[in-house]
User: Fold this.
Amino acid sequence: MLAFAMGVMPVHGQGADAVVLEETNVVDIHNEVSFSLVKHRAVRIQNDNAAHHADFSIYMDNDMALDKFQLTLSDASGRLLRTFKQKDLMRTEFSEGLAADGYMLYLDVTPPSYPVVAAIDITVNFKRNNVSFPIFSPHDSYNTAVEKASYDITYPADYPLRYRIVNSSVVPVKTSRDGKTCLHFQFDNLKEIKRSEYGLPLSEVSPKVYFAPSRFSYYKTAGSLLSWHDLGVWEHSLFSDRGELPEEAKAKVRQLTAGCASDKEKVAAIYKFLGEHTRYVSIQLGIGGYQPMAASEVWRQGFGDCKALSNYMMALLAEAGIPSHCVAISTQQDKLLPDFPNFQQMNHMILEVPLSTDTLWVECTNPQLPLGYVHDDISGHEALEISADGGRLVTLPEYPDSLNVNVTEARVALSPDGSADITINEDYRYHRYARMKSIATLGDNDRRKVMFSIYNLPQAEIQSVVVDDRHEPFCAPSLTYSLKAHSLKYASVTGSRIFVPTNLLHKNFMAAADSHLASELYIAHGSRNVETIVFTLPEGYTLESKPASTTLSLPFAHFSSSVSAEGNTITITYDYLLHRGTYPGAAEQFHEFEKQVGEAYARKMVLKKVSNP
Assistant:
């Protein structure tokens, strides 16, 4: 509901870009449908890395009122530099990709110098229809320390408030007065969390407190958060009258499935139709934040948000005699709190289609993805299945690490002057596919720019890039492309010798900086790189020295390289496998491992000109 930030200089804790000097949050719950928030936050910004902490933004809707706003900038001595009032806030409605009855108020502030203290004071009244309260999370960005932060939430003694503390052992202080109860939470002296290439995401390690009611009233509907089952019951009630289709839509389903021999074929035909005739538009109108547009409206308008498109697909499948369930999920975190049902952990909706031989997880907002493919933003994530039986926590499948593979076959024909004709054939599968899929939609010039960013092609001309995006239903998603290029200076010539880089692929490969290592190692998705590079030697040259073969192993990673020579060709292979998971205390070990991998990729071979007899 709120998004605002300020920044800070370290008082203790060298290296922090910002320190929260003081944060107070006072939440007063009046009844089941309304509450107020009074917030003060003072931060000192040490350098430009933390400048974004001086910005402010808040999403507003018809159920909210911003009754007070002030943001001040002061120098390190406390001298006031500038004051911003509510009249200085900018307002933006949303783009054509968003239909909403809300708007954003924001302020972009450029600090005049550093260090600078940014302090904000706001009062917000939430007038009705509330199902959650602001999260207490003062550690809201990397490299920001917290000196003092508190959160007081007051509520009627009979109000069913629940809370859940994450990543902290803090214990609230509970008091009672005048028929109301107050909980006081305090976070002090929190050390900054450094961004690390190897570490867990900030959201997984920062301390926070969630708040939610046991029961709630929302737009004349009543619901319970005592269990995920109860939340699913309420969510399902919002879908109960939204699945009716007009007769022409029903006729279209019969036409699409008439020649299908199985339910899988029917799902594929309907999914293709969905992709060809609808587009994604975010809807945030009233109860539309949780209730989908009616399927008949999506049929008529040709657009919808994630829940509307999932509900529409569910209605089309039902007409074909195939049951399915909408599923609420997060694209940002893979775990839900099992004993704390809430609305704040999920931001997306997909469709679950249980078939006799398999369960399909269908991404209805992007039908360009292959049907049956569980993309990397949701694979392995816990989610809430919503059905007539209520809510049920489910876990989406994750692909074996060895399937997330990038297979490379390259040929480099060297010339005596160090130039080379190069052909590269790439095949990206599963999660590696998803990360490269966008190049299929790029124009030639943009595609060439991407190739130059990936490969080590000095003074080169890319002659062609041919892309094939294979996304047939139920097949392994695979994006392949073939690149042809001519490099004027691929190798270095010194006298009678040519020094040849043995790996043209990992242009920017390097281990993370030592100063940003976390204690644990976090690998979100495992993967495998398999590379074969065949060099053809120029006439009159022979191999003088070659890189040694290498094998490196850790419990969660394996790397090998080998070199073989036959006639005038040198073949070098690389195989690098990473296993997903969290490995406590392993970041330093993996850092050294990656250094050695980088050294292996950076090796060169030396060719020597053969003397004339």
Summary: Residues 465 and 483 are 5 Å apart (CA to CA). Confidence is low (pLDDT under 50) at residues 1-13, 94-100.
